[in-house]
What does this fold into?
Amino acid sequence: MGHRIQGVIALRQPAAAALDAIAERYAFRMFEMAGAPVWILDLGISGRPDRATMRTARSLAPSYVDAIRVLDCDEHDLEQLTWLTAASAIAKIISDPVLGFVSDDSVLDFAAIARPEGVAIVGDHIAPYLLRWDAGALTIQPYSRTSEAGPPRPPEELELIPSVSLLAAEPLPDDVYPLHGNVTAEVYEFAPIAAGVIGDGMGAGQATLKLVESRGLESSCWDAR
It folds into this structure.
């Protein structure tokens, strides 16, 4: 799967009954991080969310969902919305905060901290925009590359979305935006000890993971870890 990383991080091992409830919704493989209280569930998720999932995602973070639908312009499949709803569902099932994320080499760089009572934080990247949704307010940071003619022109439809703050465009060198940047930032916000899960190149290194539970998912991007 290359540099694609995905999953839901928990800081307490889910109980057997909770795993049964998760298995009713998703195929999964659960890994334990060696030497640390960190568990990661890789879920059988891929591709475009259905209408019910999109409606659920919008109820969790309406201004964020409306904004990415405007900015993405149907160019991608909005897979991050499926991970948003999954993180929220798992947080409720295990009655603990979790961090859901999906990131790859080309399009996706999404992370969300979900609590049993609802989603707390979302970080996302839809080139050329960085997005952060926090406590109901969405901040969008446009950026331009040094090789481009000028800053991006955000769609006028963004003005119709409540609770959106649009910052001035910031110039960035072509190679500045880091791989898995949002995921790295939100993992550090959620629990620094979990940073070794993603091997972020910031001194944490790559943690060893052990498969401890498998329910219907035959392989994972974490199997070689």
